Design the sequence.
């Protein structure tokens, strides 16, 4: 967890310095990203909140992800991750939305292999998604997904991203 806390400290600091707020929509990480950010001193100045969207009904009803998209591609998909990030950004009034969806195992899900993870990011510049393939047990994969989400958040908060 130490690496996660280090990433969270950097993200909180950068968000505070930039005057930006963040919200998270989490499926397989089930609140881990939000919790690690909230563990960081100063988080109250940048963290709007989080939505644990474990079920597809929450992805559609709370985050506004298209039910047709979910029916067509399943919950583990880049477009779903991007939609979750955009939805939580809008729902919680944040500058940046970050989202996680994937397969922690032990069984594959929606035809996707264990360890398949998508991180979605939404900001004023638009939305994007990034695919990962992690290995290990459920806890390992969830931890790696949390780390990847924090890294993507840091990318959005980097001075290059903010000046573009």
Sequence:
């Amino acid at each position: 967890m130490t690496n996660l806390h280090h990433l969270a400290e950097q993200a909180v600091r950068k968000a505070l310095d930039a005057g930006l707020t963040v919200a998270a929509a989490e499926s397989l990480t089930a609140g881990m990203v939000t919790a690690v950010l909230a563990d960081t001193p100063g988080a109250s100045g940048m963290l709007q909140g989080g939505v644990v969207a474990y079920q597809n009904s929450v992805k559609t009803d709370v985050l506004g992800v298209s039910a047709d998209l979910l029916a067509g591609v399943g919950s583990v998909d880049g477009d779903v991750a991007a939609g979750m990030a955009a939805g939580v950004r809008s729902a919680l009034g944040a500058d940046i939305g970050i989202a996680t969806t994937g397969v922690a195992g032990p069984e594959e899900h929606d035809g996707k292999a264990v360890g398949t993870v998508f991180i979605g990011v939404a900001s004023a510049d638009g939305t994007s998604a990034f695919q990962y393939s992690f290995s290990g047990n459920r806890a390992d994969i969830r931890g790696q997904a949390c780390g990847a989400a924090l890294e993507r958040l840091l990318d959005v908060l980097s001075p290059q991203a903010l000046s573009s």
